[in-house]
Amino acid sequence: MASSERSPAEEAEASRFDRLRSKLRLLYHGQSPKALRFQSIILLVDLAIIAFFIATPLLRESETFLWIDYSIAAILAIDLIARGLAATHPMRWLRQLPVIIDIFILITLLAPTWLFNLGFLRILRLWTLSRSSMVWRPLEKRGLGEYRDTMQAVINLLVFIFVVTGFVYTAFARRDSGIAGYVDALYFTVTTMTTTGFGDIVLPGTFGKLVSVVVMIVGISLFVRLAQLIFRPAKVNFPCPQCGLNRHEPDAVHCKACGHLLNIPDEGQG
Q: Where is the Potassium channel domain (predicted)?
């Protein structure tokens, strides 16, 4: 037992580490004004990173590209480490899909030349950010929580467009496809997923046709999902006292899951 006891120095070090984790947990997940300011700064940094990812094909030839790339890699690494320390169960946090995607994005930032062909996947950072409570918490406080599904559908659509654009640009540029630059790849992606099909840009070969088919099917599905969320009646959050179903139509009288009588207040009611 005596051999397992820690020295005063080790105890002090462990105490400082625990205090650091507690402080980071409060900053990342707290509701205090200080925590909210910190979360707002993190959100702005994330949006700046996403803007860089979108502009990467246009900035790659710039002399400052590598400097910006490695700076963003350092910021992302610090943020990942801090979020890991703030997590209650770090190993469980490490297995989450958004975290795995962020780690992959960090690797592509550290090796921009070797992993250029996979660089377009960096835009998935927007998808991981859209799963963050730091984004939705302030919106819900402002009464915009009911639009979360719609905004999520818009983000999913944007992520799909830019991922496909990056893939098409990487795989088919300058290969008798009519794609000479990033804007051409974006133009092809949008015209294909909307099934407009002007035909001025066509991906060559069987593989190109298969890519076009996938873009059309998935793109139309995302458009339909977005249209449903925009034009169908918005649902309200009101837990059913009996089964717990949380989402109901504003004028619902009975729960559609269990039939229990509901008493959903109007917007004007407290």
A: 159-230
What the block records as the tokens of 65 is 């590209």
User: Distance (Å, rounded) from C-alpha 151 to C-alpha 226?
Assistant: 9
176-217: pLDDT as tens digits: 667 877 888 889 899 988 888 787 888 888 888 898 899 899
Between CA 252 and CA 137 the distance in angstroms is 26
Which of 237, 245, 195, 200 lies closest to 217 in space, CA to CA? Answer: 195
Q: What is the pLDDT of residue 135?
A: 65
CA torsion through residues 139, 140, 143, 149, sign: positive
Please give the Cα distance from 170 to 102 (Å, whole number): 21
Q: 100 with 127: CB under 8 angstroms? A: no
Residue 236: helix, strand or coil by DSSP?
strand
The neighbour count for residue 11, using CB atoms within 10 Å, is 11
Rounded-to-integer distance, Cα 246 and Cα 255, Å: 10
DSSP structure class, residue 235: P
- Region class of 244: left (phi > 0), else alpha (psi between -120 and 50), else beta: left
Domain limits, the chain = 9-143, 144-232, 235-270
Residue 44 CA to residue 40 CA, distance in Å, equals: 6
Q: Which amino acid would we find at residue 57?
A: P
Q: What is the dihedral of CA 150, 151, 157, 159, to 10 degrees?
A: -160
pLDDT of residue 233: 58
Going by the DSSP 8-state scheme, the letter that residue 142 receives in this structure is: T
Q: What is the pTM of this model?
A: 0.61
Q: What separation in angstroms does the CA of 171 have from each of 159, 167, 202?
A: 18, 6, 13
Query: What residues contact residue 229 under an 8 Å CB cut-off, 6+ apart?
Result: 149, 150, 153
Its CATH architecture, for the domain 144-232, is Orthogonal Bundle (1.10)
